[in-house]
Amino acid sequence: MFHRGELVTLTIEQYAFGGRGIAKIPTEEGQFIVFVDNAFPGQQVRAKIDVKRKHHAEAKLIEVLERAPIEEVSSFQEISGAPYIFVPPAAQEAVKLASTLSTFAKISGQRNINDLFDEYIASPSLFYYRNKMEYSFSSIEHHIATGEDIDDAFALGFKRRGTWWKVENLDRPSGLFDEDWEQKLPTLRAFFKSYPVTRLASTKKIWFFQAYYCKKVF
User: Going by CATH, does the domain composed of 1-122 fall within 2.40.30.160?
Assistant: First the structure.
């Protein structure tokens, strides 16, 4: 049905343990299952087939074409490292809890897994909780709004899903890291673009390096 490396459009129907969405495709032999990393039920996605087996495939999420009805788009900028940023925390908790209990029930053989379960302990911080963030520079920018790839650009942000050479500019906070810092990132990008070392580096066809920023935690 599919082959490795193929780009496919899928509708996600269920959630699997480990952060994978499940797409089901009817065939003469029954349903063919595709597990898509970081996809959520209700979404229509474009994904790249990574592993192909007889009755199932595994795929990497490339982009969300249509959001799930439950998603609430906010002022945060969606990045590859936060695929559920628009999914309400209560909805995330529900599907993660259900998939976790189902997995433990299968492994343990316990039929009364819900009775044995104690409680779900959520993180005390839902946003701005990371104390380290990695940003990438590239001369190939993937423009989020248009989907266009721009050569000889100066991009500072996060790698485009499915690539290591394209970067999407971070123009507003992602919701993961320090809000004040990420609001200043466009200004920092302009500074680096004018800096002599980066001007020299950008004359090459492709240049790429990474920057780290850490918050000190007491």
Answer: no
Helix (H, G, I), strand (E, B) or coil at 15: strand
Residues contacting residue 88 through CB under 8 Å, at least 6 positions apart: 70, 71, 72
Question: For residue 46, what are the CA distances in angstroms to 71, 87, 147?
Answer: 18, 18, 13
The percentage of residues in the chain with a pLDDT greater than 70, rounded to a whole number, is 89
pLDDT at res. 35: 97
Domain boundaries defined on the chain = 1-122, 132-214
Q: Please name the residue that has the structure tokens 């002599």.
A: 196
Identify the helix (H) or strand (E) that includes residue 194: helix 185-194
- The H or E element containing residue 41 is none
Residue 29: other Cβ atoms inside 10 A: 9
Helix ranges (H only) for the chain are 89-108, 113-116, 179-183, 185-194, 196-201
Please give the Cα distance from 11 to 32 (Å, whole number): 13
pTM of the model: 0.82
- Triad 96, 98, 102: Cα angle to 5°: 115
Dump pLDDT digits (tens) for 118-129.
988 888 888 999
Give the pLDDT mean for 20-45. 94
